[in-house]
Write a structure and sequence with these properties.
Elements: H1 2-21, H2 31-34, E1 40-45, H3 47-50, H4 55-64, E2 67-70, H5 76-79, H6 89-100, E3 104-112, H7 131-148, E4 155-160, H8 173-178, H9 181-193, E5 198-203, H10 209-224, E6 231-239, H11 246-258, E7 262-271, H12 303-322, E8 327-332, H13 365-376
Parallel strand pairs: 1-2, 1-8, 2-3, 3-4, 4-5, 5-6, 6-7, 7-8
Length: 379
């Protein structure tokens, strides 16, 4: 009873806050207002934002975004840290937040080789479980999570990062124990748990031709077997240089659209800090010793770098607007610079500036320019 009262009070409080902070339901000078009719604009929420403890962030989110995704709280190590022990506190609050503001809610993610608990793959003796046991554990996890939010979560990232850049299979524990069928099983289990939810495959470095071709092949294979897949998520963790090359990124947008699925641009951010290697992708397990030369802007950005960041963001959004008829959603991976994962990966303690809002919760100039570009498309 106390839990129900808390959830009711939470939703009521959110509704009161949105009515007081938004000047109108969809202000035309907001990101979501300017992009209305083109694509959804989303952001990833951290735990503080999920619980509504950051009112300044809530105001920005409600005004400018119409889609949300959990940054971490729906990953398997958080949801089910021990077998049969589920922790839905943060995920419940995130879904309540999205429902209260009538947002397009994305669950991230059901099956991923990273940030998964070891027990999922191991038996009591510390050896890998059989194929049958892992399939059953996978089914239980997916079914429990998806059924809980049936009718409230609009779309699920069902499988995340199954391929390497050359298009070959990633040798994850899911792949090693079950084989490539783990993907179709995951999509099957998710569809059975909520037949109306949209189901997505998501991956990084989607500009690589090999990966592009393998994902198209995956989509076609699932469809040929009568297994539902609605969309492909193209991660867009980027830098100031030519990675990803936008012409190749655009080819992937067109290829996935031609395969008959929605295109979602996911996890967009742009680091201003050089990477140690071009080959590490978005592997969370990568970690490197911190040294001063790899944290070049601890006290702010030089004007030249700020301009380069602005221009790089505009290159992306010019592409998205040009291809808006093929894109369903663009999601930025976080809200303000100080809360971005880029500050601690792959090196802890750096100062990065990868998002649309700065550490003072102020919109960077690029936000106004994105709005102008979107509005000019209608003229």
């Amino acid at each position: 009873m106390r839990t129900k009262l808390f959830k009711f009070a939470f939703i009521v409080g959110l509704a009161i806050l949105v009515s007081s902070c938004a000047r109108e339901e969809t202000p035309t000078d907001s990101l979501k207002g300017a992009l209305d009719g083109k694509f959804l604009i989303g952001t990833a929420l951290n735990s503080i934002q999920i619980y509504g403890d950051d009112s300044a962030a809530t105001e920005i989110i409600v005004r400018n975004f119409n889609s949300i995704v959990a940054e971490n709280c729906m990953k398997s190590e958080i949801i089910q840290p021990e077998e049969g022990v589920f922790d839905f506190r943060q995920s419940d609050a995130m879904v309540d937040f999205g429902v209260a503001y009538d947002m397009y809610i994305v669950g991230h993610c059901l099956i991923w080789h990273s940030q998964a608990p070891d027990w999922l793959f191991m038996d009591a003796g510390g050896k890998y479980v059989s194929r049958e046991v892992l399939i059953e554990r996978m089914k239980t996890h997916i079914t429990t999570l998806v059924e809980r939010y049936k009718g409230r979560v609009d779309a699920w990232i069902v499988v995340n990062e199954a391929f390497l850049d050359d298009g070959s299979w990633r040798n994850s524990r899911f792949y090693d124990i079950i084989g490539p069928a783990y993907i179709e099983l995951a999509f099957q289990f998710a569809h059975e748990a909520d037949p109306k939810a949209e189901l997505l495959y998501n991956d990084n470095s989607m500009f690589h031709e090999g990966k592009r071709n393998s994902v198209v092949e995956l989509v076609n294979d699932l469809k040929s077997k009568g297994i539902r897949i609605d969309g492909v998520g193209m991660q867009a963790h980027s830098g100031l240089d030519s990675i990803p090359p936008l012409d190749e990124f655009e080819k992937s947008i067109e290829a996935f659209d031609a395969a008959g699925v929605d295109v979602h641009v996911t996890e967009l951010d742009i680091t201003v800090i050089p990477l140690l290697s071009r080959d590490i992708g978005a592997e969370v397990s990568a970690d490197f010793k911190y040294w001063e030369m790899m944290d070049p802007y601890p006290n702010g950005l030089p004007d030249s770098v700020s301009i380069a960041l602005h221009d790089r963001y505009m290159e992306f959004f010019d592409l998205f607007l040009r291809q808006h008829d093929k894109i369903k959603r663009v999601t930025v991976w976080g809200l303000t610079d100080d809360q971005s994962w880029r500050n601690y990966w792959p090196i802890q303690g750096r100062t990065d500036y990868p998002l649309l809002y700065d550490r003072n919760y102020d919109a960077k100039p690029v936000v106004a320019d994105i709005i102008k570009a979107a509005q000019s498309l209608e003229e």
